[in-house]
Structures are given as C-alpha cells and as structure tokens.
Amino acid sequence: MSVVLAGGGTAGHIEPALALADALRRAEPGIPITCLGTERGLETRLVPLRGYELALIPAVPLPRKLTPQLLSVPGRLAGAVRAAADVLDRARAEVLVGFGGYVAPPAYLAARRRHVPIVVHDANVRPGLANRIGALFTRHVFTAHPTTKLRYATCIGIPLRREIAGLDRLALGDKAREHFGLRPDLPVLLVTGGSQGARSLNFAVLDAADWIRGAGIQVLHILGPRSGIEVRMPPGNTPYITLPYVDRMDLAYAAADFALCRSGAMTCAELTAVGLPAAYVPLPHGNGEQRLNALPIERAGGGLIIDDAALTPEWIRDVLVPILLDPDLVAAMSEAASEMGARDSDEWLAAEVLDVIRGRR
Fold first, then answer.
1. Contact between 206 and 227 (Cβ < 8 Å)
2. Secondary structure of residue 189 in the 3-state scheme
3. What is the pLDDT of residues 289-314, one digit of tens each?
4. Alpha-carbon distance 93 to 159, whole Å?
5. pTM above 0.85, yes or no
6. What element of type H or E holds 95?
7. pLDDT for 31
8. What are the structural domains, with CATH classification, of the chain?
9. Which residues of 210-236 are buried (b: 16+ CB within 10 A; e: fewer)?
C-alpha cells in the first residue's frame, strides 16, 4: 500500500492530512506515505516535524477573476501536473487523497492521468475550487459539513490530531493550569487569533484586561507569533498570561473554560471535539466562510458569534465576563459544543482510504 496526500498552504489543509497520515500508520504501521506540497506553504515546516516525507511541486495559484495572469496558468499548470505525476510514479501510489489548496488541482489531474484512485476531503462549508475539480473525478468525497455541496459527498467531520480528538479536558485541567502558571480555582478565558494573531481580538482583550481580572477571571492569551505584540501583564492575584505561541494546544484547551477566537474550520472542529464553548469572531473579510463555520455551533448553544466590528472592551465586560461568571451556563454550553464535535473522523477517513486501496486490488 502507498498513499500520497495533497494538502498544502495553510494549516487548515495540512493538519487534516497529517491527522489522516497518523491514523493510516496506526492502522497499517508500515504503509508508505508521501505528502505533496509547494515551497510557499506551511507544509515545508509542519510535514517534516511530524516525520513524513514531503515532495514539492510548483505552486499554481488560480486567479479568481479574469486577469492577464490567467493566460499563464495553462503552461504553469501543465508543469505542475507533470511534477505531481512523477511523485505518484516514484511513490507507486495506490491512492491520492486531496484536501485542497494550491497543490491539489495538479495532483488531481496527475492522478486522473495515471489512473490512480482519488479521495477528496473538504473542510469548508463552501468547497474551494480545487476540491470542486477533484470531486469531478471520483465518488469518494468526504466533507466536514452536511450542507457542503459536492457530488457524492459524505459528511464525516474533520480529521484531528489524536492529542486533540482524545483530549479529556476535565482530567487534564489541573495539570494544564499548572503548566501555564494559572490558578486551579478561578475561571480561565483562552484568547487566540491563530498564527497571524488577530489584531482586533488582541487589542479588545488587552484593553479589557482590568475589567476581566477585576471580575476574578484568568486569561491565557496567545498573541500570535506574527502579531508583532509583546505584552507582559503586571503580576496579581488573577493571572493574565501572554504568550506568542503555544505548541501544546491540547493543554491550552484543557486549562480553559471558555475561548475567544476566530472561527476557521479547524478551530471550530477542535473546540467542539474537546467540548470548549467559545465566542467566535469571524474574519470580517472574505466570502463569509468563517461565520458559516460557527453558525451551527451557535444554533446548538455551544457558542456565540460576535462581529469583528462589535468586539469592544465594553462588549467583553458586559457580555463575555457575565457568561464566564456563570458556571452552570458555561457547563451547559460545553455540553452543547461537545455534542457538535466529531472525534473519530481521522479513523473513519483512514478506513475509507484503505477500502479504496483494497477495492483496487
């Protein structure tokens, strides 16, 4: 058995691919796995860190509008398809699993050319162009949302790392709080805007810090390694911990009672899997994808949505702080979030991929 995974660019494409790779290795310890990526994506760092082989092909961004750049796409795409086909040949691939991003269209076209079976997974409510292309070539299509419109789609959720999918927040809570220097007896708000560090989230919470701490609420604030913000809060009886980055998000989730965050597909999937309620602040630009990610969670009672423009220190004081001070409400929201979560998507997708290989034989 040999599997090639195509998902690059952002963590939203790479992390589900790596979670699948881990699940495949648990099911078939000797299975060869090659991850396909481009030089411009996070995969150049994340894939080697997880111990998987990475093969690079040229990136071919597809313009969303009619521009002069569109004229250069066919030639560059042809080169990327040839490079992807070479990877499939070297790996003796028996299946290609695509997750979207720049690397996926040439991978899908190369697999079709080489008669390699294709499996598609899309994490978004609105499928991207890459996976809309891939879904034309296969019946093995899987999504994170039941409303995602792709032909032959089956909703299975998003494959997550085992340390997240298998996390017991309550059992790990005291250890996690000790790890970050937080008290065991006060509620904790986790603030994270992702790797870029959401400017509006960061400054709204920092400006509300005195009100939050005055109410007896601790804060674990992940500023983001690219935020450019360096803040050290003065010590006090109510800790406010600022960090540029956390590589153990399982501990951050276990330490928290509530989160304030963006609503990317991976964030929503992880928070519901671990049962952590949140105030979701969708990106104020783009196609509205992030609001759609959080909307089912809000409707189920596992979180709430606040517009970026409405996120002010006063909103935190008047709305978020009272929620955190109501343990019964937080517990109910946690249970509702947990009921929305999917913990076994990685194993489900791995089983489907292995079935495709066995069916081919």
1. no
2. strand
3. 899 999 999 999 999 999 999 999 99
4. 21
5. yes
6. strand 95-100
7. 96
8. 3-160+343-360 (3.40.50.2000), 167-340 (3.40.50.2000)
9. ebbbebebbbbbbbbeebeeeeebeee
